[in-house]
Amino acid sequence: MAKRAAAGISRNASKAVSRDTLLRQELDAKRTVCIDGETRRIATRQLVIQTTVKDALTGDREARRMIWEAMGRLYPAEADVPELPLYQRLNASDALTLEEFEAEVRRRIMAEVAGEAPDARR
Length: 122
Prior knowledge:
Helix content is 60%, strand content 10%. By secondary structure, it is mostly helical. Strands 1-2 form a two-stranded antiparallel sheet. Helix 3 packs across helix 4 (61-74). The termini are far apart. The mean pLDDT is 80.
């Protein structure tokens, strides 16, 4: 025990908090800020994000780079491309099956319109 004390190691060394935990605690901590003349309490992480966005808008290149990277993660380019309709995403076999189904439905409708009993057979 005397060796530990001489080395500056406390008995609570095993209860050391990781940097990630400390950072999480700091980012979750509430701060009092004045925004647009209104005093509010917000989490530090929200304040950091707002400050970074403001810096990016006022020309800070590093802040702008950070925002662009975050936007790329949050809004991937694929989300900007409209999804193709189902009939354009079908493979040849599925397309043929769909065409056959459409033809059968049309045949049945035409039979009903003509007053014939629809035939369930192909």
